[in-house]
Design a protein that fits this description.
The structure holds 3 protein chains of 3 kinds. Chain A is mainly α. Chain A has one domain: MetI-like fold (Orthogonal Bundle). Chain A has 11 helices and no strands. In chain A, α5 packs across α6 and α8 runs antiparallel to α10. The longest helix of chain A has 38 residues. The two termini of chain A are 35 Å apart. By secondary structure, chain B is an alpha/beta fold. Chain B folds into 2 domains: 174 residues, 3-Layer(aba) Sandwich (Rossmann fold), CATH 3.40.50.300; 67 residues, no CATH class. In chain B, strands 5-4-1-2-10-9-3-8-7-6 form a 10-stranded mixed beta sheet, with helices on both faces. Chain B is globular. Chain C has 2 domains: 38 residues; 210 residues, MetI-like (MetI-like fold, Orthogonal Bundle), CATH 1.10.3720. Chain C contains 10 helices and no strands. Chain C is elongated, with a radius of gyration of 23 Å. The chains are: A mainly alpha, B alpha/beta, C mainly alpha. At the A-C interface, α1, α4, α5, α8 and α9 of A face α1, α4, α5, α8 and α9 of C.
Chain lengths: 249, 256, 261
């Protein structure tokens, strides 16, 4: 019954797709897209285009995470630093990240460093600002408790500051993940000779419509996989938070 | 063990100067249990935070075992009023109690021993692997008490620890404190706004005036050492002492 | 509340912004970074001021805002209507959940090639990307909002014979409104990002296309100036939606915290 409920609508949609697919040049039938998917992506492209793209995304994302959380904790712990930097940071966050692509191309060329830098520079702001907010909102009684019981230095950072701010940090990381995927794709669409974004645009230019659709499908699956992965990590890291019902308070 | 001499605290902000504590002097002998009561808003919590070294005093000083307090002293533990906020929600009960012991760099065996003993003493050994938010308010405050006890402090400070629990739980917790105090002989300063509680628990009761706070009276509680919720509270002497403190506090509020 | 009052905060904030400007002026002037790559702040702002008096810039800005507003409005109403229907028709939520969970994480930039084929560098491409991206933000929040309606209240309303329409009107909508506004706020920011992206990558007219042109013609100060402008517009968009949110929810008793989506 559960399976039926989960699959009924997707099956219906694919059938509908099948029914209308003949009518337009731009909409090949599902089986053609499926075949194109297998032929296109289960080949050396997986190693040459897909994996490097994902690798750059992860590298940029992890770097942005370290940078954002590190600086965020530093800024969040100092009231003056926070008051001084908040407007500047808000401004940087308000810049739509994709406009950084042409700028960073100017500065760092069109190779891997540029693409990673683009991802870092787009992902870091939501992480940074959310971390600042999380550290600012740390409970004062808990902070006093740490002082009273000699919890300080690295231990205080690990057991109190980072854990206490983790709900906001995770929220920032979640926002950053979707920005990271966008930047991965368009940094490759812009000026590149390899990568997922480049390949999909290439198919479009060469009117390989089924292949193009298979690329869109692959991007969708990638987005889905990353979001499922993220949710798994989040459930683990924040189990205490969901348990305590704090998110509804 | 604990000496507070001419302690004063003034809050200053942009042209406004609020004298929270005028001048407070009293002492707590080794192994004594002393209660502090005062009218609401008289700066009880400010006093406690100064004694704990969480807040710098503006005048005077606090000494613990002869050493002046400049920051939280290593031989002191505090039980805060806000039990819901003083336990780490991402740690289990056991981890909460064990954390200060880790910071003290006690060996694992000794830590296990202390955690086990203190959780048993507060009757929560079964809940060791639970998270604080799975427990009732009274139980959470027991965990905070267990954490303080396991820390093996020379001085234990309690800041209105039972202000936010129901009456039945409160009576149980009061007796728990008396038992622990008697078993461990730890010097205890208990801040409360509840006159009954102060007279019931204390060997002495310090009555504070309203802000700027001074000591109005340092009252010896000459009740039998063995206290009992029903028997002690129905003694005529208990009523006299309670009435006396009550009148003092009324007077303090009147002179405000 | 404490020592750093709101006036103090403002002072610190201005000092921070001033510091950024000084830094951006000094770094190229002192030759720490080649001024060809990072022009001094004064030159960037000068270029921006120069551009602000040209009609071209305002036309481009207008195009961007048109794509943003139209796309956001389309996505918003589609998501609200669909979300309410899915939320209140029994069983529909279970039927649609797998599809929603599959389609939602698809990055909207995946649609760039399709949009290019279907619409080319025009408003249509912008709208396609903007609508797809912002639709899910609103839909998810609407679903949360409708789910938050107390089932007792719902049964009460039914037992008093309220019609389906007045149940939606007087019970579902007011309960869901804070969530809807959260969705709108998130969607507005995403819509702006995607509007600029479509212009940048596909070449639909607007700010993004201007940046692309400036970059390929090597007009570095203009690239910076337009990015600063984009940031300012972004701040404006956020502020406007926040203001709207506060206005609409002024009567609401519960100030809702954001639902983790």
């Amino acid at each position: 019954m559960r399976v039926v409920r989960l699959l009924a609508l997707p099956v219906l949609l694919v059938l509908a797709w099948w029914a209308v697919s003949g009518s337009s040049f731009y909409l090949p039938s599902p089986d053609r897209v499926g075949r194109a998917f297998a032929e296109t992506w289960f080949s050396e492209r997986l190693v040459l285009d897909v994996l490097p793209s994902v690798g750059r995304l992860l590298a940029g994302y992890v770097l942005a995470g370290l940078l954002g959380v590190g600086l965020g904790v530093l800024i969040g712990l100092s009231r003056r630093l926070r008051a001084t930097l908040e407007p500047v940071l808000e401004f940087f966050r308000a810049i739509p990240p994709p406009v950084l692509v042409p700028l960073i191309m100017l500065l760092a060329g069109i190779d891997t460093p540029m693409k990673v830098l683009v991802i870092v520079s787009g992902c870091v702001w939501p992480i940074l600002l959310n971390t600042v907010e999380g550290v600012r909102a740390l409970d004062e009684v808990l902070s006093d408790t740490c002082r009273m019981y000699g919890v300080r230095g690295a231990s205080r950072m690990r057991r109190f500051v980072l854990r206490g701010a983790s709900p906001q940090i995770m929220a920032g990381l979640r926002q950053a993940l979707s920005i990271g995927i966008i930047l991965m794709v368009i940094s490759e669409m812009f000026a590149s000779s390899s990568g997922l974004g480049f390949t999909i645009v290439l198919f479009q230019r060469q009117f390989q419509i089924a292949e193009m659709w298979s690329g869109i499908l692959l991007l969708g699956l990638l987005g889905l996989a990353l979001s499922v992965l993220f949710r798994g990590v989040e459930r683990r890291v924040l189990s205490w938070y969901y348990g305590s019902g704090a998110e509804r308070a | 063990m604990l000496e507070i001499s001419s302690l004063g605290k003034v809050y200053e902000s942009r042209g406004r100067r609020v004298e929270a504590i005028g001048s407070i002097t009293f002492g707590v002998g080794s192994g004594e249990l002393v209660c502090v009561v005062g009218p609401s808003g008289c700066g009880k919590t400010t006093l406690l935070r100064c004694i704990a070294g969480l807040l710098p005093a503006s005048a005077g000083e606090v000494r613990v075992a002869g050493v002046p307090v400049t920051g939280p002293p290593p031989n002191m533990a505090v039980v805060f009023q806000e039990y819901g906020r003083s336990l780490f929600p991402w740690m289990t009960v056991r981890e909460n109690v064990e954390l200060p012991l880790k910071e003290k760099r006690l060996p694992a065996g000794r830590r296990r021993e202390l955690v086990g003993e203190s959780l048993t003493a507060v009757g929560l050994i079964e809940a060791a692997e639970a998270h604080p938010w799975q427990l009732s308010g009274g139980m959470q405050q027991r965990v905070a008490i267990a954490r303080a006890v396991a820390y093996e402090p020379q001085v234990l400070l309690m800041d209105e620890p039972f202000a936010a629990v129901d009456a039945q739980t409160r009576a149980d917790l009061e007796d728990l404190i008396l038992r622990l105090w008697r078993d461990l002989g730890v010097t205890t300063l208990f801040v409360t706004h509840d006159i009954d509680e102060a007279v019931y628990l204390g060997q002495r009761v310090i009555v504070l005036s309203s802000s700027p706070t001074t000591v109005m009276e340092d009252l010896k509680i000459d009740l039998p050492a063995e206290r009992d919720q029903v028997a002690t509270r129905s003694l005529p002497r208990f009523g006299e002492l309670r009435g006396h403190v009550y009148r003092q506090i009324q007077r303090a509020r009147g002179t405000r | 509340m404490t020592r750093t009052g709101s006036l103090g905060r403002l002072g610190y904030g201005l000092a921070g912004l001033g510091g950024l400007l000084v830094l951006m002026e000094a770094v190229p002037r002192l030759g720490l970074v080649d001024a060809r790559f990072l022009p001094p702040a004064s030159e960037i702002l000068g270029t921006l001021a120069g551009q602000l008096v040209t009609p071209e810039l305002w036309i481009a800005l207008g195009e961007t805002m048109r794509g943003w507003a139209l796309g956001l409005a389309l996505a918003f109403w589609a998501a609200v209507v669909l979300g309410v229907v899915i939320g209140i028709v029994p069983g529909l939520r279970g039927l649609t959940s797998s599809t929603v969970e599959f389609l939602r994480p698809i990055p909207s930039v995946a649609l760039v090639p399709l949009a290019t084929l279907l619409f080319g560098p025009s408003l249509g491409s912008t709208l396609m990307l903007v609508v797809y991206a912002s639709f899910w933000q609103v839909l998810i929040q609407v679903l949360y909002g409708v789910a938050a309606v107390d089932s007792v209240a719902f049964d009460t309303a039914r037992s008093y014979g309220l019609s389906a329409w007045s149940r939606v009107r007087h019970l579902v909508w007011p309960t869901a409104l804070p969530y809807v506004m959260t969705g709108l706020r998130l969607a507005a920011a995403v819509a702006f990002i995607l509007a600029v992206t479509a212009e940048l990558v596909i070449g639909s007219p607007g700010l993004g296309a201007e940046i692309q042109v400036a970059q390929s013609s090597g007009a570095v100060p203009a690239v910076y100036a337009l990015i600063v402008l984009a940031g300012l517009v972004g701040i404006g968009v956020n502020a406007a939606v926040r203001l709207l949110e506060r206005r609409v929810l002024a009567w609401h008793p519960a100030v809702r915290s954001e639902v983790a989506a």
